[in-house]
Amino acid sequence: MEEPVLPLSDRGLAYGDGLFETILVRDGRPLLWAEHVDRLLRGCRALSLPPPGSVELIDSLACCGPGLGVLKLVYTRGSGGRGYAPPPSVSPRLVSTWSSFTPDARRWHEGVQVRLCRLRLAAQPALAGIKHLARLENVLARNEWHDTEIAEGLMLDEHGAVVEATAMNVFLRASEEAPVVTPPLDRCGVAGTLRQALITAGAVSEAPLDVDQLQAGASLWVGNSVQGVWPVKQLCDSQGRQLSRWTVTPSGSCQFQQQAHALLGY
After folding, report:
1. Distance between CA 63 and CA 105 in Å, rounded?
2. What is the pLDDT of residue 253?
3. Measuring CA to CA, which residue among 129, 153, 145, 44 is closest to residue 94?
4. What pLDDT, on the 0 to 100 scale, is given for residue 42?
């Protein structure tokens, strides 16, 4: 499939002036479609960007092939304007690509190792929660390690509060009887669509978290709407020193993971 091309004048390329969504698609049917569209529209409001029409969004699914795949939507303000100032009248661009995908089921069952990232996320409430194109903090954080045994990096804010992983949200059960919680994302971070669906279903609630709470927790997970939920078996600091270790519950008996994967058809 030929990749769509954006001109060099596009503001998404020049300034990150736009949004994107990464959507799991099974045989042409997008999973968590309502949550993805809702986040895209919230992003448009945050950026004062005219939203795409519903027909335009549905038409973007035409590029999807059979089986399981990932659809990436990129929506930019288009071209124009001098410097940072956007033009008075804009012509946004929506481009889409699809690629086949096979989830790493081994990580569902065996769990993963994660580490703390050195980079701290800056607070910017105006952009918190949305999936804008300027993701350099995540890029720098992900470049901190090259050990293939480390599946994800956990990112903290400037005050040491846990926010998210580089490409996933964080979920914690403090004790076997406690509910599953995830950090609030009102100052920074990306509000994942799987996270939102679990909150809507009453399976997850928001609560501030710090590293000490993660270390003492009964179960820790990272997850997103493409990969599903990975149980964490080991947490390390940014130097690779072990902070905590967990025995991973078989995925078939983990109610939280089952509930999350049911939303994704896994």
Report:
1. 26
2. 72
3. 44
4. 98
